[in-house]
Model the fold of this input.
Amino acid sequence: MGEAFAIARRLRELPDDALRRLTPDRRASSARIADFFDFAEALLDDASVARRMALLDRDTLAVLAAALDGTERHSLATALGREQSEVDAALERLERDILVLDDGAGPIRPVSAVAAVFEEWAASGRPGRAELRLPAAAPTSHATRPSPDTDALASERAAGSVGIVGESLHELDREPARLLGRGAPSMPDLKRLAAAAASTPDQIELALSVASAAGLTDAIGSAIRLSEVGEAWLASATAERWLRLATAWRDAIPATIRDRILTAYRRGSVDLVEELSWWYPLAEDAVVAPTRAVDAVAELLGITVDGATSGFGRLLVDDHAADAASTLASMLPAEVSQVVLQDDLTVIALGPPTAELDVRLRALAEPEGRAQASRYRITTASVTRALADGDTAEDLLAYLESISLTGVPQPLRYLVSEAASRFGLVRVGTIRASADASADPGRSSYIRSEDAGLIAAISVDQSLVALGLRPSDEHRLTSRIEAATVYWALHDARYPVVAEDDGGAPLRIRRQPVMRTNLSAPAASTEPDLVSRLRADDSGDTSSAWLAKQLEIAVRDHTPVTVQLQHGERRSTFTIEPVSLAGGRLRGLDRSADVERTLPLAMITEVRIAG
Done:
């Protein structure tokens, strides 16, 4: 009796973040919630209570089951044979989740739906109230002892996962990936990223989930692309890269199961899913699915190897993240800052390149593989890209000379010089709202070149028909397509193309994914969230609306209340069993005086549950 009444008052006292945590947990429909009483009733719904109870661990469920006997707080520990601190921690969670009421002056009271949920579970063959409150031993966990090779294998996995994420991010920088409705990259993009990282689509999807948690990617509209944080990450050392991924993994473990999972990793549990399924006997897929995802990433990052927790993995789960990164760094091969330049235009780093070397080489060469030795190839297109970024032929040759163990081969010098001589022969730009636009109505971009023969060749190139090119003069073509698309079409057709800004300066253009109109980003809602709306509409304890709502609930639930009236200088207090509320008056039975009272609502200044 009086549950909604009491819980509505409790909800008003909670901080906003606690209220927001309750809303998604209980799936309360905000459209039907106009005030704190509506919110309380949504939380008391049987289905809502069952969903939250299913996410309780076995210890907390035992306390909840025992509390149904009407036991006081200090007696629960004795009844269950447990430490008082353990029971108090469980009760704190149950109160936080609005599953029990405790006014400090009587027994703990689970909300009324709790008993029905326990009965329904027992009837369906799942653990019921009687079974859950009995002492039970956790399943024997056969911890896997680390072998002498565990840390070596773990460090290889850690370095490999960093490489997979890094190659994926570089590829996303070159061409963002399309997102499907479920928030995952499309399969063609997963295969493209897998090819770039010498991995599998499944591993790429797992790696991207960690990268997203670490803030290395941004999901914008229907595309996922490299973020500014990701750019900085690519320029950091391997151990630092791993540390950001690993801490993001740890912090992303769902709060409800985090302590159990980290404890299992400290011990080296083999079957994490079996163990968590026992601790959360009613959660089913709500615990199994995230546990499997957490375990898969732990194996990917070398935190565990076939169920055994690595040395640096144990440091991480023990909250010694910096020590974990230092330990891993000491196990990785020494990074190199110099390379071998070969006559076939390949660049070989005889070991893992430093982040600085890798980033610089990728600006002027195409990566071809990373293993014990990393391999890059310098091409006309890659040199053109470096020139577009502001380098000169002299800059490039001087840099190559500075990092080479073998000097710069003549074929490479010739390639750089030839690319520089052809650089900018074809230029692409945007037609602005100016004289250009009036001369080319309906056209969005232009192609220009001082080489009229080259313009003529482009105009009849069948691979470029989709651009709808139209000549303006012998040195210029226009297109209805945006400049970025035109640029990449010419690039793929192997023309010496450079994008330029309005002043004619080289401009780097990143390849964009094909956007799908049905997955455009939804407009940001201007409506306040549920908690903000409830706070805005709440006018305080003494407002007539709040008092009237409390009395409506008391009449509906037949809950005795104590009301205080203010009439002039005088105050009166009555405890009544409310019968009706109408016409601005409350009618109810005063058992102590054995009379029926009719009280003006306008004079009532306080309402509280009697008792």
